[in-house]
Write a structure and sequence with these properties.
Protein name: Aldose 1-epimerase family protein
InterPro entries: Aldose_1/G6P_1-epimerase (IPR008183), Gal_mutarotase_sf_dom (IPR011013), GH-type_carb-bd (IPR014718), LacX (IPR037481)
Number of helices: 1
Helix content: under 10%
Low-confidence stretches: none
Pfam family, one: Aldose_epim
Order of helices and strands: EEEEEEEEHEEEEEEEEEEEEEE
Organism: Sphingomonas olei
Number of strands: 22
Amino acid sequence: MTDWITIANDHLSAAINPLGAELSSLKDAARRELMTDADPAFWTGRAPLLFPVVGKPAGEVIRIQGRDYPMKQHGFARRLPFTLVDHGPTHATFRLAESDETRVHYPFAFTLDATFRLDGATLHTDIVISNPNAQDMPASFGFHPAFAWPLPGGAERGQHVITFGQNEPDGVRPIADDGTIKAGSDPSPLDGRTLHLADDLFAHDALVWDNVRSSSVTYGAPGGPHLRIDFPDTPMLGIWTKPGARYICVEPWHGIADPEGYAGEFIDKAGIFLIPPGGSKSISMAVTLLP
């Protein structure tokens, strides 16, 4: 915890762990924690950055030009130390670059910059993934922040809801026992644009929208603070917890787990983007504390 990098203003304070460039604490002006307690009985993660895959690869491998590379769920960035390259009172930038270790899993040179910056009551997380290779680089990326459930100062846990910014007519994608994505869809759990949070929603893992219309959701309960999560650059969304845990994850994704039984090329998966030689991909998320 002593190695966490802190930023703060009059509205919010945040702490980022250089291991994984993981947002590990977000507090309001009254020093109330807005993120998970990371209880090891449930999950010790806080807000991992998911790169270069999102979700579970079938057989824990990805195939690139006919060769299989070992790849764990959600990729390797969350398990590696980032370098702090810039830090001021209200901002910090961390960088991960390729290494002998990453090339075992992903045969590309890359840099991944993660900038955390406070602007009023908003924490912005700005990601830039750069491709120095001479060929296109396929990748995916996701956010995975775990917010306190219940939020401090509000109603009890059972009164918390997530409200989508747009109507979401599609159902959610079912998750197979091995963590990949089944074919078809399950009925939408939404009441209009509102998800009434309850443990039984997550008895079979996350709720996954693979074509989300909304670019923001609002999370909270009557009488207490709310968080608006904006995700303008990600076409997919997961919402997840473990039943009984004191957190709810709102996960904007540009990528998704493999289809069940998938044996194709990584480049052909849903949600994969291609970064051209010398180019970059920017993906952002913002969390705003509302009264």
